[in-house]
Specification:
Family: Belongs to the CALHM family.
Membrane topology: Multi-pass membrane protein
GO molecular function: monoatomic cation channel activity
Structural class: mainly alpha
Number of helices: 8
Number of domains: 2
Low-confidence stretches: 185-195
Oligomer: single chain
Largest sheet: none
Strand content: under 5%
Mean pLDDT: 79
Distance between the termini: 23 Å
Helix content: 55-70%
Number of strands: 0
Protein name: Calcium homeostasis modulator protein 6 isoform X2
Subcellular location: Membrane
């Protein structure tokens, strides 16, 4: 959508396409019996292969570019208005209050920051241990890491349920897992009619979509 708006604001592509379009109404609007040979040579206006004076060509092309820019701004305004209305509707119909939603967003940001920090630290220690063991020809020092099943559990997408009080899939995992070393997650109570996330909670899984 953005490149369409940029193309319309520049006006070059619209200029080429409309001068080549065989639309009687549009040609009458541009030429309007002002310039001789305008109807027959309109498709050559973007180029220099016409005998019509440059001032007359530029006058016609400026009209096309102005109309293209108007369409571009209309497109941008429409997208912004639609996005604004969609956000308003999502907030109005959200089952979560504004203050809780604000806290929820802050929590997910902090959780993502801590997860990145702890992951980097643990990866650094594990890499250092393995390199040291390799060069010193010694057995590696035991290190505890989350099992594969745990990574799979926290990598799934969050599903909002009105009866749960979890702010992320990681929050749910550590709260419901019986044994963190051998993950077996207890079945949680589910609402029969609530299986999809409200639009206001789209930010919860944003960090999982960035590789």
């Amino acid at each position: 959508m953005s490149w369409i708006a940029v193309a319309l604001l520049r006006g070059v592509y619209f200029e080429c396409s409309m001068t080549g379009a065989n639309i009687t109404l549009f040609r009458r609007h541009l030429c309007n019996e002002k310039y001789s040979h305008c109807w027959t040579e309109l498709d050559k206006f973007p180029c220099d292969g016409t005998a019509i004076p440059q001032s007359e060509r530029m006058a016609v092309l400026s009209i096309i570019r102005a109309e293209s820019q108007v369409l571009g701004w209309i497109l941008i305004g429409s997208v912004m208005t639609f996005t604004f209305l969609l956000t308003c509707v999502a907030r109005c119909y959200s089952p979560i209050s504004y203050m809780q939603l604000k806290f929820w967003r802050m929590y997910t940001q902090k959780e993502s920051q801590f997860l990145d920090s702890y992951t980097a630290q643990h990866a650094e220690k594990l890499a250092e241990r393995n390199i040291t063991s390799f060069f010193d020809l010694t057995k590696p020092i035991p290190m505890r890491s989350p099992p594969r099943q745990a990574w799979e559990k926290i990598s799934s997408f969050y599903k909002f349920r009105s009866m749960d009080q979890y702010y992320s899939i990681l929050h749910k995992y550590v709260s419901t897992c019986e044994d963190l070393e051998n993950p077996v997650v207890r079945a949680s109570l589910r609402s029969e009619n609530d299986f999809s996330n409200p639009a206001a909670l789209a930010f919860v899984d944003e960090s999982k979509l960035v590789v």
